[in-house]
Amino acid sequence: MLASMQPRGFASSTALTEEQLRDAPVRLPAPARLAAPLRVEGARAQQGARALGLHTVADLLEHLPRERREARAVSELVAGETATLVVEVRRIATRAVRRRGMRPLVEATVADHSAALRVTFFNQPWLVSHYPVGTRLILHGKADGRGRFTVQGHAPTDQGLGRAPQASIEVASRPVGVASRAADATAPSAPVGSVAHYPATEGLSSTQILALVQQHRARFDDVIEPLGLAIRRRERLPDRGTALRAAHFAHGAQQAECARRRLAFDELLFGALALMQARHRRHSAAGVSAPVLDGEAQLSARWLAGGLPFTLTADQRTALAEIDADLAQGRPMQRLLMGEVGSGKTVVALYAMLRAVEHGLQAALMAPTETLAEQHFATIQKLLGAEPVRAGLLTGSTPSGRRADLLGKLASGQLSMIVGTHALIEEAVSFQRLAVAVVDEQHRFGVSQRAALDAKGAPGEAPHLLHMTATPIPRTLALRNHGDLDQTTLRELPRGRQPIATHVCSTEAERERAYARIREELAAGRQAFVVCPLVEESDALQARAATAEFERLREGPLRDHTLVLMHGQMRPAQKQAAMAEFACGQAQVLVATTVIEVGIDVPNATVMLVEDADRYGISQLHQLRGRIGRGEHASLCLLFGRRDSRRLQALARESDGFALAEIDLELRGQGDLAGTRQSGDLAYRFAEFPADRELMERAHLLARAIIDADPELELPEHALLRAALTGAQGGRAPEPIRA
Ligand code: ADP
Ligand code: MG
Fold first, then answer.
1. How far is the CA of 356 from the centre of ligand 2 (A)?
2. What is the reported pTM?
3. DSSP state, 436?
4. What is the CA radius of gyration of the chain?
5. CATH number, domain 72-160
6. pLDDT > 60? residue 372
7. Of 45, 129, 356, 721, which has fewest CB within 10 angstroms of its CB?
8. How far does the centroid of ligand 1 lie from the alpha carbon of residue 313, in Å?
9. Which residues, including other chains, have CB under 8 Å from residue 695's CB and lie 6 or more apart?
10. Domain 299-490, CATH 3.30.200.20 — does that match?
């Protein structure tokens, strides 16, 4: 019986502590005890506990210290100082008090390695038996500088886990991932020891919470273990009860890290399970199937073989193969295609659409703006070449006669392919049979808009969906936000793409030099973007600033050239005219706010100057920069801002958007450490990024395997997991966080 029990605790099996031996006899976990209400002495403390959300014993065990602080050495105490000490009781006794009605005082002498101290406890005569000589205590209070200490909070330190810093967590094998992190942690266990600091309130101090946890420490054995031994062994994780216990009492960085890793794994696993369960339910919802597109490739094959003016990159070929496999299934594809501007997503999307067309079905592509929709339509027509595919463009400015014609042909099936904006999801639009829908810049659409497109399938049927984004998302965020989508990444830019040299400019001399470089490029027949200073207060102010910059350049540094202005306060037609003027080369310089569309393709533009660049995020700057380097000429990006900006330095150094996205996350991650975690970039309690990237991948793999085998967690071996998941998530998938 005992032999088959799961390993618990940190001590290696050969060296059980006395207490563990005492606890070892057949005592099965009784999770019900965790649900018991938490009893706290005193009305104020009770109120404090409630304010902290500590209603049950389980709440208490899950209420983890925010940090550990080194205790003060007694010999270093300064008069009037409030401090936390770790001491041992040398002598303890009650002393009667004269005043009537008062309980006896408890006086004790305590000491650490440095000095001894007299302390007095009021109103708690039972402490004499609670804290016999030799007990190690944490004391929080105020020193008077004359060898006395007024105690405000006290708790025994955890003895069961021992002071032995060599104790290591019992994981089924070597703790993976600990070594690297523990190496850079500061050396643990100065002689006085560290003290856990809990989130506390006025009524309930950190030390009181510690005392409560001590009081309930036997309950760690009742913590539900949702993961089976085989999984824990494979993932090299301690059991959850042990991890929680260690999070409270860990001695040393290594234990603490091993515990954190387990709790982070649970957090990531539950998140992934919830996402994948939601996805599974969507797929298996009554009657929702998708057209099976597994017929012979004719049109698409012909097009691939002869219609393209270039050869596909390896990433593009992989994407096509993945899409092929998805489309051949009777359940709707849900794939996210990530690739930077210029990585060739349109070709991939068009392929998926052609697969629908060659099955006699229909395809749609929805873009967030008219400009983008028009560009897609033009690109698609160009890419299709001579292929006889009937395609149409539908946007908000499609004339009503034309619109009626398009809607009629969509409904009858005469039209195979439609490109458009939100206009596509209007009520009046219906398809004969929509098989493939592509959503470009998917993050710019709301959930309901994507659902509306989904609903354009034939009755009881959903189209295959391909979501596209040009925003490189770090793998961790992609899993966190889109873990319910299959993911394909186009990393490799098509050959022939020119590198963009990027420089940070800070001085006046550099500004003069930058304008000189722009004039050189213009003289050589190239074109330039100037991105105006960012004014956040209002669009109107921003527009005024852009106009002023436009005037300044036109009369100053760029007076011999033709400039055109574009900003957010202009009407769509005006913006379009400005853009067209620049695109056809009539204007040499486009002075603009960041309204420049993501998809703008002017291969002749080779310079971009960004004012106030350090006010933009890394990804935004990278997106902006993606509008140059699209032709046959080398390009130059000039970022004006502080030379010591790490973001600007990263941009100058890196050209790969995914690498930049990782750096961005890392820089923001450091901000988290500085206490801005609540900024909401990554709402995790335990997981840390980018350090836990691999852990996240593993959690997702496991979640996928579990949901594939047992989507509703109905198998007996998943019963505890299901219970934990319901408790952890309230059964919901985590809210997506936008990168
Ligand atoms: P994205 O939509 O990802 O920004 P596009 O699909 O619009 O990229 O492609 C950008 C440009 O690169 C287009 O002009 C396209 O024809 C071209 N292109 C796409 N794939 C390749 C390739 N494999 N080799 C060369 N050029 C390509
Ligand atoms: Mg595109």
1. 20
2. 0.65
3. E
4. 33
5. 2.40.50.140
6. yes
7. 129
8. 10
9. 177, 261, 264, 265, 268, 687
10. no
